[in-house]
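Weekly modeling sync, notes
Attendees: AB, CL, MP (scribe)

Item 1: holo prediction request
CL wants a bound-state model with fe (ii) ion before deciding which constructs to order. AB pointed out that an apo prediction alone won't tell us much about the pocket. Agreed to run with the ligand included and paste results into these notes for async review.

Input as submitted:
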Amino acid sequence: MPFYHTLGKLPRKRHTVFRSEAGLLYSEQLMGNEGFTGPASLLYHVRPPTTIKSVKRVQDICYERDPDHTLKHRHFRTARLPEGGSPTLDRVPLLFNQDVAMLFARPDKNDEHWYRNSMGDEVVYVGEGSGVLETQFGDLPYQQGDYLVIHRHILHRFRMNQEAHRLVIFESKGYIRTPRRYRNEHGQLVEGAPYSERDIRIPRELRTHDQVGDFQILVKQYEGLTELILDHHPCDVVGWDGFFYPWAFNINDFEPIVGRIHQPPPVHQTFQGDGFVICSFCPRPFDFDPNAVPAPYNHSNVDSDEVLYYASSEFMSRKGIEYGSITLHPDGIPHGPHPGRAEASIGAKETKELAVMMDTFRPLHVAKQALPVEDGNYFRSWIEAGTGFNPPTS
Ligand SMILES: [Fe+2]
């Protein structure tokens, strides 16, 4: 998406004869969105990507709503969710609406299958872990703090290094992109944007697997998974070019914008989807006016629900919040700093916070699977300790 890129071998002109040294015609494939007019790439395969031996619906995926629709602030402790499993199949849905779903996973087993989400773009925030994302566009190494942007239909597989993984997955119905105001009319990120093209990592190594056999691909479509058996290795691309490919951006490459007095959340915006944004709250100097109140002021999120994932094991900004906590502050109720936090922030020089925020413009539903790890007292946590709020003890 961010810029034109090319990798491997290509014919000089599109849609022209392109053969292997053995004389076989390579199979050209356009992959992109919005029909033939959106961001797209052309890939050249050793074999046609269409040679499917069998299809089988293997799983329904249904995000069920919490039946309790009481309006209140909510808090979920992802550290208490079940651990283990697959990075693509063992994801716990937490929050969702028509535009986006937020899921969480702590996988420990690499997949044998290949995976393709044809229902949405994915942003996978790697809270912990490292490895390589294998894709048809080449290998994309990843590390802690990366946002992996995997547009819909991009076939991929996580090769996780043997270390703990925490993944926060955003499934977006719309195309994931850089915020419009960060780009000039020619598409380049402008000076003053909190990151530049140089911070965006894309596949640089293309490995062509010229191999026949049965290869399992799981495709998410129609609210479930379908297994396709392809008669050859799906990563048989010899070259590609275009604007459509997986890419990575590390949260530590986000350059925070600070001011003499408090800067509002839009300065932290990192990505744009349809109906939502993703923001990065990174370590930074605090406001430098002696009378500034660095803690955020109380605010009412009119027309938006606000979700924070607390991504640092070292920093707790709110009472009762733990590493891996997710808070939901919905439209309809003001929220703000906890008691004493505004006063305590005056004169503070810096924050070491690290958090990922999602703001949605339509109300979110809580998934039933999030309820076992909910802190049911969170909505009362603005009451002073001792007058009603008992912080969790474990
Ligand atoms: Fe807020």
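Recorded for review: Residues 299, 306, 329, 335 surround fe (ii) ion (CB under 6 Å).
Action items: CL to compare against the apo run; MP to circulate these notes.
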